[in-house]
Amino acid sequence: MKVGIIGVGLIGGSLALSAREHIPDVQLYGSNRSEANLKKSLELGLIDFPLHKQDIKSMDIILLAIPVDIAIIQLVDLLDEVNDNALIIDFGSTKSAICFEVALHSKRGQFLATHPIAGTEYSGPAAALPNLFMNKIQILCETQKTRPDLLEWAQDWFKKIGMNLREMDPLEHDKHIAYVSHLSHISSYMLGKTVIEKEKDQTTIFDMAGSGFASTVRLAKSPPSMWIPIFKQNKDNISETLTEYINNLNQFKTLLETEKFDELYDQIGDINGIRQILEGIAKTKNNN
Amino acid sequence: MKVGIIGVGLIGGSLALSAREHIPDVQLYGSNRSEANLKKSLELGLIDFPLHKQDIKSMDIILLAIPVDIAIIQLVDLLDEVNDNALIIDFGSTKSAICFEVALHSKRGQFLATHPIAGTEYSGPAAALPNLFMNKIQILCETQKTRPDLLEWAQDWFKKIGMNLREMDPLEHDKHIAYVSHLSHISSYMLGKTVIEKEKDQTTIFDMAGSGFASTVRLAKSPPSMWIPIFKQNKDNISETLTEYINNLNQFKTLLETEKFDELYDQIGDINGIRQILEGIAKTKNNN
User: Fold this and answer.
1) Which residues constitute the domain of residue A202?
2) Residues B138 and B235 in one domain
3) Contacts with B, A 158-217, CB within 8 Å
4) What is the value of ipTM here, to two decimals?
5) Which of A11, A163, A288, B253 could lock onto A138 through a cystine, CB 3.0 to 4.6 A?
6) Contact between A183 and B191 using a beta-carbon 8 Å cutoff
7) A–B: how many Cβ contacts below 8 A?
């Protein structure tokens, strides 16, 4: 079986490792915008061959793991080119725009829209991990629009690599993911910005920042090439989450300045409930 | 040598473990507001005896590891009671108020104000860790006001448990720590609040939240009993950091809504510089 990976980075590279382990007699082809990263992914043995335009027609599976804006453009071209039994799967962090774009494509049945809740703040093929998807949630959108035999193959492979499957409407996906993922990134970016602007003397940050700051600002290391297209595609939902987040911060600031500490105390007591939610996440994901 | 620990929790319990290892013939006394936690710290062997009021006079060292509001009140009483060669060290996250409170005390020389940049989001004696302070920064304030022989003993012990010492003015400390620690906690609390309010259906959070959300919201598990007193004492500095953080978020929101994605791209590229700063933190702390 020939699998082509467009974008052999953190996600694409980890998919390559999972494909190698769970797809019998797989031949892995890959491409990357960066020549250096393509070379690296060949050296690391993530892929066997570079994926050229003329190879597309012979691929059985194509995995699309590139920034969400380019993914949409490429998906249309790829659907036009693939053979009649190939399946294209995308792994981007937004789902409405890409589903909308190909809704009326004659080969819509050969496409599956997914979002694996997995990743790190690192990127590139060297960041690929063999178990990145183990016990992680894989969200599938509009499965009824994917050809049943192709859908079944994908579901089977995802289960083999340890993922727990959930179906979700693309609009619902984008609304919820704005809260639990996109907003986290913005809060982290802006925290990094605020501290960098204030603490021009970096040694003070070195000396005074502990593991708490490192944890909260970790996502601020994520590259704009991946995140700006996400913000662009999910603009309206993100704008709504930002309004609520900023309102909560302003409310906190007012309670602080007017010394309503009892109220703040109760509020934080309630927020501590996030502990159970996070433990639930760990438990749910590991038990499945 | 008799060491009394007021507040045998995460910090106090970890200090107990470090004292046991590095102070010859140490006898460890401890107290805790919670009877259950006091019992636990005796069971865990963190301390040898409960610390009663009548024991204070015989202590050589007293370690104060309780919420910063109670610490101030207790410090004054303790200074009144201790013998003439005892040293009291506090480990709170704010330093101006406590230094100001005892500035004119006749036994000021028997007090040392410190802030170890170490901790986790957990609390209580069961959260104590033997190597919590290894390779961590320990900030010392107003060392010139501590009696030289007592200061020397403390510095020697801190070095033995692996800490890297820095001196800092208490006002400067509170200003900087608002950015690199207190603001992180508030951004995390408010992120948790925003998500909990929106996602009433917790299974959606379970399914869609990944390690990024868990990391950004980790500090929201921290207890209000510790943090409200910190917010109270460092109100003005924190209010300033919040103003800047909210301004940055509003600016981001405007750039998003007006689709100034190139500007956002450059901004995030700059913020990615936090990676080098964080790596610097790791390197600085491990190489010392």
Assistant:
1) 173-257
2) no
3) 166, 173, 176-177, 179-181, 183-199, 202, 204-217
4) 0.91
5) A163
6) yes
7) 305
